[in-house]
From TrEMBL:
Superkingdom, taxonomy of origin: Bacteria
Protein name: Glutamate ABC transporter substrate-binding protein
Entry's family note: Belongs to the bacterial solute-binding protein 3 family.
PROSITE patterns attached to this UniProt entry: PROKAR_LIPOPROTEIN (PS51257), SBP_BACTERIAL_3 (PS01039)
CDD domains, per database record: PBP2_GluB
Signal sequence extent: 1-20
Sequence ranges assigned to domain Solute-binding protein family 3/N-terminal in this UniProt record: 70-294
Length: 308
């Protein structure tokens, strides 16, 4: 009995030190992720309607940001062209980051030294705004009326559209071909809901972000990735065997800067910044630098809709 106890204790000690053999479990097919439908909208107006600029420069929210000394912005670090980390400089850069810097410059006179970027997932966007851990979110966030129930938005600053990325030799040529195929999108987005309206037999797969979806796609765990054309263009640039299906976008995705619903003065300032970027051409310059080379199409800044 003593020998048996000693043997068991020795085995436990070795296991704790990492020397035990690891039994490889049998392969298990994961269950498809469950998609929760978005709540119905009761806003019959245009969801891109925002608060008109009112020349606000020192409202309560703006004063608090100035006193703190920096603007807290939630962004992506893996959405190539929109917000991604430059491997050579270590800096996060892209079209969305240009929006953040313009807002910070309007508050402090310069963005240099006055921006704190926080890398967040798509699912983090609304909760972190609601808890006031962030001042703004500039992370390719679509404006819709159900989200207006939780947060506020700036005027639309870019019009994207949902498309699908597939392997070049997949034989998938349209959304209709996705029936029975595994389609990946980040959790917390509406992309899978939109796909299943057109291809209800598509199998939803989720990941923390689009980079996670790309890994699943390259590992054979997903047959396609869906998301905004801006994001998919960045993924295709990282995978020479992938392509974005051509044709019209499945949806219109109006991007807005997310803000806590109580911070109306900050929304008004942001909308003034967007108006200034239209007037001085800086919006157009940012688009031409970041997005036009991959999207291969010109674009103009969306016209704002006010009256909220």
């Amino acid at each position: 009995m003593r020998r048996l106890v000693l043997a068991v204790a020795t085995f436990a000690l070795l296991a704790g030190c990492g020397y035990s053999d690891t039994e490889v479990p049998a392969a298990v097919t994961p269950e498809p992720a469950k998609v929760t439908p978005a709540p119905p909208c009761d806003d019959t107006g245009d969801p891109t309607r925002s608060y008109a600029p009112a020349g606000v420069t020192n409202g309560p929210t703006i004063a608090e940001i100035r006193e703190r000394g920096f603007l807290r912005a939630g962004v992506s670090a893996d959405s190539y062209l929109l917000g991604s980390r430059n491997p050579f400089t270590g800096q996060i850069e892209g079209f969305d980051i240009d929006m953040v810097n313009a807002i910070a410059a309007a508050i402090f006179g310069t963005a240099q030294g006055h921006v704190q970027l926080r890398v967040i997932s798509a699912a983090d966007r609304i909760p972190l705004l609601q808890s006031s851990e962030l001042d703004i979110v500039a992370r390719n966030m679509t404006i819709n009326c159900s989200r207006w129930k939780d947060i506020a938005f700036s005027a639309e600053y870019f019009r994207s559209g949902q498309k699908v990325l597939v392997a070049q030799d997949s034989g998938i040529r349209s959304v209709a071909d996705l029936s029975g195929k595994r389609v990946c999108a980040p959790s917390g987005t509406t992309s899978l809901d939109n796909i299943q309206q057109i291809a209800p037999d598509a199998i939803p797969v989720t990941a923390g972000n689009h980079t996670g979806c790309l890994l699943k796609f390259q590992n054979g765990e997903a047959d396609a990735i869906t998301g905004d054309d801006t994001v998919l263009a960045g993924l295709a640039a990282q995978d020479p065997y992938a392509e974005v299906l051509t044709g019209e976008a499945l949806t219109d995705e109006p991007y807005g800067i997310g803000v806590n619903e109580d911070d109306v003065d900050l929304v008004q300032l942001i909308n003034g910044v967007l108006e200034d970027m239209r007037a001085d051409g800086s919006w157009q310059a940012s688009y031409k630098k970041w997005l036009q080379p991959s999207l291969k199409a010109p674009a103009t800044q969306p016209q704002p809709v006010y009256g909220r």
